[in-house]
Amino acid sequence: MLTLEGAEPFIYRTHGALVANSPSVHYCANLMSARGPRKYVVSVVGQSAPSDLAHRSVLDEVVHPVVRRSGVDRIFRSVATSSAVITFILMGLIGGFLLVKGYDALKVAGWGFLTDSEWAPDQGGKFGIAAILPFTIQIAVVALFIAVPVALSTALFITEYAPRKMRRLLTAMIDLLAAVPSLIYGLWGLFFLQPRLITLSKWMADHLGWIPFFHVDDQYGTSLGIFPSSTFVSGVIVSLMVIPICTAVMREVFSQAPPGEREGAMALGGTRWGVVRDVVLPFGRGGIIGGSMLGLGRALGETIAVTLIISPAFTAKWSILDQGSNSIAALIALKFSESSTFGISALMAAGLALFIITLLVNAAASTVVSNSRSGSSTEI
Amino acid sequence: MTSIDTTSSDRTTMSSDISSLDPGHKASGLTASNVACWFGTKKVLEGVNLDMAPGQVTALIGPSGCGKSTFLRTLNRMHELVPSATLAGEILIDGVDIYRGAIPVTDVRRRIGMVFQKPNPFPAMTVAENVLAGLKLSGLKSTRSERDDLIESCLTKAGLWNEVKNRLGDPGRALSGGQQQRLCIARSLAVSPQVLLMDEPCSALDPTSTRRIEQTISEISETITVVIVTHNMQQAQRVSHRCAFFLAAENEPGRIIEEGPTKAIFSNPHDPRTNDYVNGRFG
Ligand SMILES: Nc1ncnc2c1ncn2[C@@H]1O[C@H](COP(=O)(O)OP(=O)(O)OP(=O)(O)O)[C@@H](O)[C@H]1O
Ligand SMILES: [Mg+2]
C-alpha cells in the first residue's frame, strides 16, 4: 500500500513515473491532484519490497492516500479551521438575525414583498422591494461600469507603465483614497460633482435618448432641473469610492505576475502591451474579478452618498438619467428613525434581501476566481 | 485541435507578416567590446571583449557569481530590465550597435532570443499557443497554415514534436520540466532568431532531456549563433566550438580570463586558473 505524506485526502490518479529512485522507502512522485500536478513524497509501507516497486509502474495505479500530520501542522490546521468556522457562524448569525427581525413583515407581505413597489408598512399599505432592489442594482451597475475600466487601466498604468518613483507615490495615493470615508465622497459629489454632471446628463438624454437607459420622459422636457437626483448621478459618485478599492486589489495582483514569465515574453520581442496581454492579464484574471466584486459589494451597500443625492422613488424604471432613484441601504437610513416596530421589521426584511444578493454575488465571484489559474501552479 | 487566435489570419498583405522573419536567414555574429556592468554602484563585469562568430556555439563557463548571466543578459538588452542596472561598452550584431543603433529594442530581443535557466512557458496558453507566443507578442501576422507549419517545425527542431503532437491543446504547464524547457526552446525558435542565448538551460533537467537539448543545439547552430552558459564541463566540451572562461576575484568585477577554441581551453589552457577550473580544482 502507498502512503502519501502531506497530501490532501483525495484519491489521486497518478501521472508520470518515479522521479527519484533511491533505495529508501521514500519516493518523490509527480501526482495529479485535484489542483493540478504536484510533487509528493510517497512512502511504501506493507509487504511490497521497495526494490520491486522501483521496477513496477507503481504510480500508474490508483493510490489511496493515508494522511499523517505533524503536531505543528495539526495546530495550524485547527486554528485555520476554527477561524473559518467562526466566520461561517457570524454570517449565519447576521442572516438569522435579519430573518428573525424581518419575519413579522415578511409574514404579512408574503410574495408581495418581491412584487410590490411601494413602501408603506406603517400606513398599513403594501410594501415590497420590486422597485428599490432594481434601483439598488442600477446604481451599482452604473458605478461598476465606470469604476472597473478606470481601475483596470489605473492598476495597469501603475504596475506596467509608470516610472518607479511615480509608482510608489501612486500606490500610496490609491491606498489613501481607499481609506477616505464615503461621507466625504458624498459631500464632494453633492456640492461639486452634481451641478456639473447634470449637463452631461442632459447631453446624453438629448443625443442618446433612443437607448432606453438614457431615455427621459418628454412630459418634463429636458430641462436641467430633472437631472440632479438620478440613478446616474448617484452611480457616478458611488463609482468614486469604488475605484480606489478595485484599483488597490488589481494593482496588488498585477504586481505579483511571475517575473519569469514577464522576462520570457520580453525575450521574445514582446512589447509592453504584449506582456500585459499575454502575461499580466491572464495571471491577474482572478484579481480583476475579485476587485470588481469587492467594489460591487461596496456599491450595493453604499448608504450615505446615495442618501444625499437621490430623491426617493418607488416605481422601477429603465431610465437612469432623470429624477428619482432609490437603494435598499438609503431606504433603511431614511426610514429607520421614523418607523414603528412593524416598519423596522419591514426594513430588516429589505436588509435581508440586500444581504442575500451580496452573498450570491460573492459566491459567483469566488467560483470564477477559483476556476482561473493561480501563478503558483507554474512551479515544477 | 488548438484554439489559436484566428481573427488575424489571412492578412498576409500587412507590412509586418511572418515572412518578414525570413527563416532561411544566415546566423549573425555578435561582438562585445569593452563591456562593463553595474548593479547600483557595484561593478560586476569589466573589460569584456568577446567575438561570437556566426553559426558557432560559444560556451561561457566560470564559477558562480562571476557575471556570466549578467553578460548574457546584456547581449539582448535584458540587463536593462533590472532597475538599478547600468552598462558601458558596445554590443554589435553584424556590426550594428544594439543599444545605440537603429534597431528597436523589441527587434533586438526578437533577433537575439533567450532561453532561461528555469522553464517559463506561459501557463495560460496551450502548447501550440506557447510556440506561437512570440508572433503574437510582436504583432506579426500569419496565416493558419503558416502557423501550423511553424508549430510542427519548431517543436520538431526542439525535439518535442513526437511527445506533444497529440497534446497541442493541453496547457503548457501540463508538460514535465524537461518538456517545458524544450517548449521554451521551440518558442524561441518560432520567431527565427539569428542568435540564441541560453542560460544554464539544462540545469533543472534529467540526463535524457539534457541530451535532447544538446542535440537541438548542434542542429540549430548551423543557422543560429548560440551562446550558452553552463556549469557542466562535459556539456561545454560536447556542444561548443569556442569557450570563454569568466572569473571574478574577491570583491572585484568579473572578467574573461581566457577565451578560445573549446579544445584548446580544455586541453591546453594558457592561464593556470583556467586549467584549475576546467579540471574541477576550484569554483
Ligand atoms: N539584480 C541584481 N542586483 C544586484 N546584484 C546582482 C543582481 N544580479 C546579479 N548580481 C550580482 O552580480 C554578480 C554576477 O551575477 P551573475 O548572476 O551574472 O553570476 P553568474 O556567473 O551567472 O552566477 P551563476 O553561475 O551562479 O548563475 C553577482 O555578484 C551577483 O551578486
Ligand atoms: Mg547565472
What is this structure, in a nutshell?
The complex is a heterodimer of chains A (380) and B (283). Helix content of chain A is 61%, strand content 7%.
Report on this model:
The complex is a heterodimer of chains A (380) and B (283). The radius of gyration of chain A is 28 Å and the shape is globular. Chain A has helices at residues 50-55, 71-109, 112-115, 132-161, 164-179, 182-208, 231-254, 259-267, 272-301, 304-309, 328-335, 341-371, and strands spanning 2-5, 13-18, 26-33, 36-44. In chain A, strands 1-4-3-2 form a four-stranded antiparallel beta sheet, with no helix packed on it. Chain A has two domains: 11-63, no CATH class; 107-377, MetI-like fold. The two termini of chain A are 26 Å apart. Helix content of chain A is 61%, strand content 7%. With 380 residues, chain A is α+β, with helices and mostly antiparallel strands. Chain A is built from twelve helices and four strands. In chain B, the strands form two sheets. A six-stranded mixed beta sheet of chain B has the order 6-7-8-3-9-10, with helices on both faces. Chain B contains ten helices and ten strands. With 283 residues, chain B is an alpha/beta fold. In chain B, a hairpin with a 5-residue loop joins strand 9 (242-248) and strand 10. Chain B has one domain (26-278): Rossmann fold, CATH 3.40.50.300. The chains are: A alpha+beta (380), B alpha/beta (283). Chains A and B meet through helix 8 and helix 9 of A and helix 2, helix 3 and helix 6 of B. Adenosine-5'-triphosphate is lined by residues 39, 44, 62, 64-70, 82 of chain B.
